[in-house]
Amino acid sequence: MTSHVYKSIELTGSSTIGTDDAVQNAIERASETVRNIQWLQVIETRGHVEGGKVAHWQVTIKVGFTLD
User: What Pfam families does the record point to (predicted)?
Assistant: First the structure.
């Protein structure tokens, strides 16, 4: 197995649909400019409430990617 060096960054995705969608939105957007994303770790989940209902979700993730 080849040795890798990883760099990690934190991202926060949001969604009106749910937490999984918020994570996917963050990963998809980051993938436009960050190459070699290999893993993620959920750091924090929170939501915004309006009128007694969840209006949108925010999920902060740590993303690791290999360096070229």
Answer: Dodecin (PF07311)
CATH of domain 6-66: 3.30.1660.10
Unique residue bearing structure tokens 């009128």: 51
Neighbours of 29 (CB within 10 A): 12
- CA–CA separation, 63 and 61 (whole Å): 6
Q: Please give the sequence-ordered ranges of beta strands (E in DSSP) within 1-68, or none if there are none.
A: 6-15, 37-50, 53-66
For 24, phi then psi, to 5°, come to -60, -40
